[in-house]
Amino acid sequence: MQRREFLKSSLAGSAAFALSGLTVLNSKRAHAATSNIELSAEGTYKTMVDGTSVYVWQFNDANGSGPGALTSGIVVNEGDVVNVTVTNNLDRAINFVIPGVMANTPSVSPGSSQTYSFTAPAAGSYFYTDGVNGEIGKAMGLSGPLVVMPADGSDRLYTGGPAFNRQYTLVLNELDDRLNAAVAAGGTYNMDDYEPNYYFANGLSYPDTAGDGDTLVSMNVGENVAIRFINTGCITYPQHFHGYHVNVISRNRVLETRVIEKDTTQVERDMCTDVILPVAQAGAYPLHTHYVPGVTANGVYVYPYGGALIVMVAA
Ligand SMILES: [Cu+2]
């Protein structure tokens, strides 16, 4: 697929995910107690921001998509019944797991389908991935965000928790193109050798992060903005804010006992960190990992293209 096509298709879907956090979800909240989701696990070539084509795996939802360039993402309400049918179009067995919620689920062999059902757990941020292939599934991109909203329909990070005026889901991951090449050839990779060279926020690298409605963090002065960092990658992301301080509310749904203002928060592997950003001033500021290679593309620094650099703008 050509770069522009890829962006076009991903942007079309991404708006739906953004809206589902706010507008669309409200109607869903009133009616849908059951969500039936169909995901196909597939391999595809993804064009990096520097033009390099890399074979990746993804969960593709034909009826929707995730934020940014992500081809799937699930937004449900606490207590909903969720049936996820996974069709495996990859060359090896996988399964569908949600760290902290569902592990050791039955695997699905190539060419087969399997339905994974669960009741949406407590409101908060989660992700789903493959649990069969060790870290290879995550390293190949086989993951997606799961956002659970409070059952009462409120725009809060959890029932009775802090309210927000708007929310952003920022999925952080990366790839090591040598691993992808090995998997594309039908093999595997020793994670001890993992040294990523491309980095993403919602599947995009800068400057595409700044041109995407789900990934450009747009705010108004005086608002409280919820940001859900979901680390589906295989490294840690020390997320550093310019221009603002944030309050870390929870890490993997465990409430922070003492909320203090921070300008950097470490998002560990397999971690979902929810923060509230009080928008204290107008302007445009970067939000980026303090792991320096994370703002590069194959070792090339931000300008003219880069890694998981996110832009925040406030009016
Ligand atoms: Cu900085």
Keywords:
4 helices, binds copper (II) ion, mainly beta, five-stranded mixed β-sheet, Immunoglobulin-like, 13% helix, seven-stranded mixed β-sheet, 315 residues
Outline the fold blueprint.
Elements: H1 3-20, H2 23-31, E1 34-47, E2 53-61, E3 74-77, E4 81-88, E5 113-119, E6 124-129, H3 136-140, E7 143-149, E8 166-175, H4 177-184, E9 198-201, E10 217-219, E11 224-231, E12 237-241, E13 246-251, E14 254-255, E15 261-262, E16 264-267, E17 272-278, E18 283-289, E19 310-314
Parallel strand pairs: 1-4, 3-7, 8-11, 10-19
Antiparallel strand pairs: 1-2, 4-5, 6-7, 8-9, 11-17, 12-16, 12-18, 13-14, 13-15, 13-17, 18-19
The protein binds copper (II) ion.
The site of copper (II) ion has 4 residues, from strand 18.
Structure description:
There is one protein chain. By secondary structure, the protein is mainly β. The chain folds into 2 domains: 3-149, Immunoglobulin-like (Sandwich); 166-314, Immunoglobulin-like, CATH 2.60.40.420. The protein has 4 helices and 19 strands. Strands 8, 9, 11, 13, 14, 15 and 17 form a 7-stranded mixed beta sheet that branches. A 5-stranded mixed beta sheet has the order 10-19-18-12-16, with no helix packed on it. The radius of gyration is 18 Å and the shape is globular. Mean pLDDT is 90; it is low at 1-17 and 19-31. The structure holds copper (II) ion.
